[in-house]
Structures are given as C-alpha cells and as structure tokens.
Amino acid sequence: xxxxxxxxxxxxxxxxxxxxxxxxxxxxxxxxxxxxxxxxxxxxxxxxxxxxxxxxxxxxxxxxxxxxxxxxxxxxxxxxxxxxxxxxxxxxxxxxxxxxxxxxxxxxxxxxxxxxxxxxxxxxxxxxxxxxxxxxxxxxxxxxxxxxxxxxxxxxxxxxxxxxxxxxxxxxxxxxxxxxxxxxxxxxxxxxxxxxxxxxxxxxxxxxxxxxxxxxxxxxxxxxxxxxxxxxxxxxxxxxxxxxxxxxxxxxxxxxxxxxxxxxxxxxxxxxxxxxxxxxxxxxxxxxxxxxxxxxxxxxxxxxxxxxxxxxxxxxxxxxxxxxxxxxxxxxxxxxxxxxxxxxxxxxxxxxxxxxxxxxxxxxxxxxxxxxxxxxxxxxxxxxxxxxxxxxxxxxxxxxxxxxxxxxxxxxxxxxxxxxxxxxxxxxxxxxxxxxxxxxxxxxxxxxxxxxxxxxxxxxxxxxxxxxxxxxxxxxxxxxxxxxxxxxxxxxxxxxxxxxxxxxxxxxxxxxxxxxxxxxxxxxxxxxxxxxxxxxxxxxxxxxxxxxxxxxxxxxxxxxxxxxxxxxxxxxxxxxxxxxxxxxxxxxxxxxxxxxxxxxxxxxxxxxxxxxxxxxxxxxxxxxxxxxxxxxxxxxxxxxxxxxxxxxxxxxxxxxxxxxxxxxxxxxxxxxxxxxxxxxxxxxxxxxxxxxxxxxxxxxxxxxxxxxxxxxxxxxxxxxxxxxxxxxxxxxxxxxxxxxx
Length: 741
Hints:
The protein has 26 helices and 11 strands. By secondary structure, the chain is of the alpha/beta class. It folds into 4 domains: 1-40 and 466-493, no CATH class; 41-204 and 452-465, Bacterial polysaccharide co-polymerase-like; 225-445, no CATH class; 494-737, P-loop containing nucleotide triphosphate hydrolases (Rossmann fold, 3-Layer(aba) Sandwich). The strands form 2 sheets. Strands 5-11-10-6-9-7-8 form a 7-stranded parallel beta sheet, with helices on both faces. The chain is elongated, with a radius of gyration of 52 Å. The chain starts with a helix and ends with a helix. Mean pLDDT is 78; it is low at 61-79 and 521-532.
C-alpha cells in the first residue's frame, strides 16, 4: 500500500512539477502553434467542390452477339468491379492532362507563380523562393542544372491530389465524381467534363474488341470467298476440258462420303475456333473478377484429361469409320455413341473437379462464369477429338478414292468443295452483319448514365479551408503540443527534480536545500568585508542555513567529525558560495570556523588582513593561534593555490588537519570540482567527510559518477546539499495534494 502511495505521489509531483516549471513555455507554445496553424491555413487556396453522379450498368448485348454461348450473368451485385475500373480511368494521368489542356490550368498556374496578384500568392511565392535558396546557390555554382518548370505536370499533379474523393457510393453501382477547383464554375465544369469524357472513353475502349472481331471475321470471309471463287474456276475449267462424266454407284457413294466428311471437318474446325474465342472471353471475364485465375493451363496439363481425350479420339475415329458403311440407327453405331457420351460426361466431371479445386469463391457471377467455362472447355476437347477422328477417316477414304478413275473423282471433289465454301461463306456473312450492327450501334460492356450533373452556386462558400474546423482542430493540436512538448523535454532531461530523487539515487542523505530565490552571500559581499554576516535582518536565510547546520552538527557529533571537504561534479554548481555561507553561519552561532578556499572574486581577502597560505601551514608548521588574528570574528580564512600545493607528504597534511580539529569547531575546505582537478579525490580520504553540492542542472549520471569517484578514492560521502533549488509547485497545492515539494 505504501509503495502504491509513493508511486502516486511521485506521478503527481512529476506532473505538476513539469506544468509549473514550464509555465511560460506552455502558453507560449500554444499561441505559437495556433498562429502557425492559422497562418498556413490562410496560405491555402480556397477550394470549391463539385460532384457528378454516374450510374454504371452492364450491357450484355455486345457479349450476346460476339459470344452467343456465354450466358449473361444476372444483375450485378455490390461486389462487381466495373465501377472500380472506371475510377481508374477517371483518376489516370491522361485524364488529368485532358482537363489541364481543356481549361488551360497550366497557364493559370504559371501566371499565379510568376505574377502573383493576391497577398496570399505573394507570401507563398516568397516562402518558396526562401526555401529554394540552397538550390539556387547550387545552380549559381554550376553544381545543378537550371531546368524550367513543367507547369503542365505541376497542374496535373495538383488535380490528381484533389481526386481522392472519386469513389463508388456504398452498396450501389454509382460513381461519385467529386473534384475540387479554385472557383465554383471551374469545379462544376471539370466534374461534368470528366463524366462526359469517361462515357466517350468507355465506348472507344469497348469497341476495340468489336472492331478486332469484325476485322478478323471479315478477313476470314474474304479468304473463304477467294477459296469459293477458286473452286468455281477449277470446276468450270474441268468441265470445259473434260466430257460429261457419269459416276458408278460405288464411286458416287464414296465421293459423297468424302464430301460429307470434309464438310463436317470444316464445320467442326470453325466450331473449334468459335469455342476457343468463347473460352478466351470467359477467361478474360474471370480474370476481371479474380486476377489470380489461371485455369486453362492447369486443365490442359492434367494427366487424367489427356487420357480421356485419347479415349475420345479413338471412339470418334471409330464412329466416323462406322458411318461410312452403316446408318446412324445401326446398333453398333448407337453403342459407340453411348460410349462417346460416357467419355464426354467423364471429361466434363474431371474439368469441373479441377476448376473447383483451383478456385474457391462465393461470388455468384464468378460461379456462373466458371460453370460456363467448364462446359465450353469440355465441348472444345470433344471437338478436338472429333477433328482428330475425322482427319484419320478422311485420310483413309482419300486413299480408297485414289483407286477410282481420276476424272470422276476429281469432278465430284470439286463439286463438293464449291458447295462447302458456299455454306461457310453464308454463315460468315450472317455473322459479319451482326458484328456490323454492334459496331455501328456503339455497344459497350457497361452503360453509363449521368444521374446528377454537377452544379455549384456562385454564392456558395468554399469547402476548404473550413475556419471553424481549423480553429477547433488547431486548439486540440496546440494543446497537445504545448503540454506534450514540455513532458517530452523532461523525459529526455536527466537532471534531478527534488531532493528525494537524490536520496533514492545514491542512498546518501540530503542535509539541506538552498532555494534559487534566496540571495546567498559570497564572502566579499558580507558587510564590513571581514567575513562575518548578521542574519538578524534576514531570518529566512538563517532558518535554511540553520537546518543545514543542525544536520551537519549531527554528522560531526557522531565521530568527532569537524573537517569537511565541499566539492561538486563540475564548476558553477555553487560549491564556493555554499562553503562561504556555511562558514558565515557557524561563525554567527559562535562556532570557531576555518574556511580554506582558493582566492577568487567570491572569496576576496578581507581588508587590512594578512591571510595565511595553506602550503605554508602544512610545510612550515604555521601556528594555529596566529589564524585567529587574521579575522576579527569567529570565521577564519586560509587560502591555497592548487598548482603550488605540495601533496607529496600526506603525513604533514594529516597532522595539519589534526591540529585544525583541535583548534576549530568546524573546518570547511572549498575544493575544485571533481572534473576540474584531482585535489578533492586526493584529500577525500584525509578529511572527516565529503559534502557534494548539486543543483537542478546536475544530471543523474553525474551524481552517480561523483559518488563512485569519491568512494573509489576511499573517501566518505556524508551528505549532499541541493543548491539553487526551485519550488515550482506552490506550497498550497503541494499541501492540498499531499506531495513533497
């Protein structure tokens, strides 16, 4: 319980200590932060926002015509990615360049930079020039190349920065196209221009696929028509060259079989191309919904699929061979057909299993596309097997036809080829007409409708800056910085805050604290200049020194300790002033006190007095009785010179301290600091005790090092005096909170 109370008291003290210690920093930081926030907010160009709402709807017409085997999915769900794809178009750099070019934003920016009109722009220009001074200097020195500003890129960058609010309205297919501009009219125009430009771009992008398919079909039709013309010319030439030809029944039957199989092969080949295109479209749509989808390769390389395809090819070959001699109703043909259907079903199941293992998703549209992918993939494998079977049978039949008279066979072959190319040409013409309708109608994958065009009133206030919000946020930020920064400084400040910290740190009692507010006297400031000081007119200082003196007397009385060395970690911690004031105090209470110090501004020689030298007193046996003639009061003074002091004979030094203890009640040695000279460490084992002077600028590690050095020299650190102590927390508050100040 006591530990918790101590911890609470420590936290409370530290909190209020920092607040009151930095009481001027906190309001200053608050005001400075608020001024900076308001100033930089003023420098921001006022921006108006305009919003256009665009509805994205799927358009299945083009897909139905291009790929009739692909079923158009149901109405799109909120998971559909089409609006997100359009957002990428809206926020692209090309769109930014189009806006910049349309509204001359680069010229506006250049005019604002080079010829500022408003005070805001003038200040921004001067700040920019100031921060560019190092770059300008490097350019002048020839270390950097002076490149002209690219205002087109700069204007585009500014636009893109203001396009963060272009997004899809939650749970809808609506794009909220929100843009910012330095005027209401410009914001309105840019938002509407971007919506219109998006609609045009989607049509152009969608028609690219239609155009490619149209061109490919047109090219294929041209090839078929060329082949048809060549077939006609060959047939006409053959007729003109040869006489009327009559085929035997056997020749007619074989020729008709050959023509039928070749026509069937060509139709199957075209169907294969259609299925491959359909499969490609399905794969594209699947990847739009899941970019990691790679199914075709996995299915094609599966060993089970390869085995089933081989079996299917063998059955298709057998079927084609049977149909040469038997009708479709024949039991043997029916049996092979059944076997083919079984293999196809197995193939479909195997493809389904592979696809399901590769992809796991809850998207219904994705599942529908996967199902169609499976069916189309199975059809493609069946057609490929059928083509292989037909190819083998055609080769075998062609070998048989070579045994018949050449003229009859050639005539039949040419006639069949003409009929085949006619059918193919008719089919492609029908397909091409459908594609032309799609192309002319500008069908696109998604239909874009502008639900709400942007409009901004000229009387409307700018969306940014919002001054009320800025002031509110500024107050919060300024409060956080003004309070947080002092605590941050204190966290990294290793100095002590109160006497209790010293005792907890090194385990040595603090025998007294000398507040910073008290004007403690140096030796030369005492009245009369003779070292004595009358405390009757300064009771506050007397009470402070009395408490220190009482503690020292208690220490001195234990083992007859009278000789104390007063030192500090470094200079300017007030050790000389502390030693002089202690000497003053003990002489005031009628204690014979010897003050040994190094002469300086604070310890000037008394007027008309000859002050003895410590060197002479040690080496020449200076009589202690004569010291009492150097001062007219109970405080006696002796000087020493650090550089001339002979420390080689420790016995004479010990003898001097013994005599001093016999003739004086208290002896105070004002030594140099521990980091300034070796003298305090040399004398510390010879004196009765060492008193360490610290102040609020002494760091914790310095106090620890001071103790370690003294103990390493076999000295005895008997106490610490906390000098220049400030009491930041008012007494009434420390008493109210029950914390030690």
